[in-house]
Amino acid sequence: xxxxxxxxxxxxxxxxxxxxxxxxxxxxxxxxxxxxxxxxxxxxxxxxxxxxxxxxxxxxxxxxxxxxxxxxxxxxxxxxxxxxxxxxxxxxxxxxxxxxxxxxxxxxxxxxxxxxxxxxxxxxxxxxxxxxxxxxxxxxxxxxxxxxxxxxxxxxxxxxxxxxxxxxxxxxxxxxxxxxxxxxxxxxxxxxxxxxxxxxxxxxxxxxxxxxxxxxxxxxxxxxxxxxxxxxxxxxxxxxxxxxxxxxxxxxxxxxxxxxxxxxxxxxxxxxxxxxxxxxxxxxxxxxxxxxxxxxxxxxxxxxxxxxxxxxxxxxxxxxxxxxxxxxxxxxxxxxxxxxxxxxxxxxxxxxxxxxxxxxxxxxxxxxxxxxxxxxxxxxxxxxxxxxxxxxxxxxxxxxxxxxxxxxxxxxxxxxxxxxxxxxxxxxxxxxxxxxxxxxxxxxxxxxxxx
Amino acid sequence: xxxxxxxxxxxxxxxxxxxxxxxxxxxxxxxxxxxxxxxxxxxxxxxxxxxxxxxxxxxxxxxxxxxxxxxxxxxxxxxxxxxxxxxxxxxxxxxxxxxxxxxxxxxxxxxxxxxxxxxxxxxxxxxxxxxxxxxxxxxxxxxxxxxxxxxxxxxxxxxxxxxxxxxxxxxxxxxxxxxxxxxxxxxxxxxxxxxxxxxxxxxxxxxxxxxxxxxxxxxxxxxxxxxxxxxxxxxxxxxxxxxxxxxxxxxxxxxxxxxxxxxxxxxxxxxxxxxxxxxxxxxxxxxxxxxxxxxxxxxxxxxxxxxxxxxxxxxxxxxxxxxxxxxxxxxxxxxxxxxxxxxxxxxxxxxxxxxxxxxxxxxxxxxxxxxxxxxxxxxxxxxxxxxxxxxxxxxxxxxxxxxxxxxxxxxxxxxxxxxxxxxxxxxxxxxxxxxxxxxxxxxxxxxxxxxxxxxxxxxxxxxxxxxxxxxxxxxxxxxxxxxxxxxxxxxxxxxxxxxxxxxx
Lengths: 451, 504
Hints:
heterodimer, A: alpha/beta, Aspartate Aminotransferase, domain 2, Aspartate Aminotransferase, domain 1, seven-stranded mixed beta sheet, about 35% helix, globular, B: alpha/beta, four-stranded antiparallel beta sheet, 16 helices
């Protein structure tokens, strides 16, 4: 029998007798006989010891961000995560529960969802948040659909400096809705630096929303006042998307810029990289848009004795009630990861998170100066930038990366691998997990290129 | 309160926590409490930013590490979970989550790999994904798989977008109608709507199956496809499945398989052989990955040759030299649905589970799940009305109609009373086409003793409904909170700390 069942032969016999059939096979009489019990050509079953050995060997063939210095970003960032975060996410009462359909026995989950919503609002400067969606990119997709529902308009404007994967996800989400997507161009100026994003100029009276990234995909921090003004004037919504929300330890929040919807990737807030997931998408909005916010939401209430408690609320937005009229088909939040994010923010506190942002910026600034001074590469991201940079040099992004891998450095993402229209450079990201020694090694390796 | 104690079974009663409320993180905050310490910065400070770019304050909690740990320990104690109680939540497959999965997922080579590392530095991860693609197509009989979707609902979106892309690619733009049985999950119509389709509900016939005449009547040249769960949400195998898929195909539509109930049919039948064109797989149900209090899941989609060109990107492929690579650009792909290559950490757990079972093990998983459900059916048939009195698959749907009519006790009250006995209630009031429904999915990992106890408790509750219906209406009796005011919660939402409920 399979490892995780508990019935004995005697149990099975007694149960079949109670049911009134002769064999387990008899229970499958409804399945067409010619298709019943097919062969499955699968590798033989492994014991626990063998499976640990097998997957352990596969895992050992991956370089990890702990093995080599890592300067990869572009939507996923190697920030420090306190040990407590993974231990909290490993608590079985959190990990092996499901959606809190029965609030009396799910107060732990519901309170944790409420706390997460509160922390997201505070971090992003927004008024209301859901309990998370799949990831930052799908949050951006949901944000655009939400803006379309609110404004009843059929055109969206995207910044070309919005992470290309996030733009692709938005495209997939709106593809079936006949929505027109306009994207601003990314260009290098005469000086060799990226020119300012012209996205505000694309916003018109048919525009449902304009989506900008802060900091943008090249690490640049923008004054969002002009695009916010353009959106306001056109009656369009402003959506601010953020790939590394540790920046909001320092930066003016989406809410303060006037964002109607803010979305962000939760991974940099203490979640393991895991080759791409699972993470959590942060999604928040102005209160007046609440009824169009998709996803699970926990709300505070009281029981019959006046005791404080929490329930899933505003469910009239959701698929199990509204079916085809729902705000989204989503029926889960990334609760366990959202709990990890809350634990991270609580452990770091304001001082800790500020230190993360301060160090990330400082290492990026140091690297920028060193690369400019000591290598044939130049920094194409204009100041001010946060923790990510585009560099251009004597070779293209792929060749530069290849050289760094030979030096055992996980050294950046070729920009053209993300978007074929991007300049042929290398995107480098920095966090508090780096240090001077690692960056000096990076600079040294880059100096060898085209020297 | 003593009278409310379920004496017979009290030894197994699970109280989630004591009466003391747990403060919010914001209430635990203590200004100046030392936070997590980072390494010391060893390069010069960056230039300061222009003031217009800076935020004013950063209102995060300040809590010491021990008190953060205690907070989450206390919250955890306010939950029941698979590890603490029988959790027969229908349609959710709350089977045991093997601990070895967790160990594997925490290996550095699984947990600490960046998704944009060069392919040559992630060959083990790509091989794992490739092997999982192969296993999932073999189990379901399809041609190819995408592992990208983040959850079942996103798998549905992927599948329906592929069906749409197929029609559009053929220049067939008239097809706007999607057929969905009236017993379907709400995600089905919601997904169809996200794809720009409208849905038509097909009624369930007297045997609990798709009404073939009504299906034929709706199958015209505007049908894009049908979304079908098999076994269906009544826990029944659709005996005319091949006819259903043939009718839809004859009209030019494709059939989307909702794999929510795959746990019933591993090694029992391959959905592709029944005429499905694609199928999503909830690995957090069938392949034992933890439900995470509501997520994460993962929702791979397997497809026939017809839909293969439209699969989302990226895909994992194996080259002639045996190495593995991610393919990001495919001309007819529906594109990306989320960042990167899917919920790798979850997929690694699912792969581990599949490798521990192999062919016979997986078949026995489904056979045992079906045995357990039918055992409960046989044991409960005299007290509760079966929605449809026939052999079920991995779950059964019963109706509490009789208790309501005779004693004024509703299914909600039965569910809340189960909590007093230390059992997580089944799914209730679903499917929508069954009055006072209780949808019970025991899964294969439960022992006969646990099932027998559940039966005793359900009998006891039926007796209580007759003797003392108020006991049920006031349940649960022993939890840190009683029934909560959901109406006020929705009317005056308080969705974060420090905010008054002023909305509408």
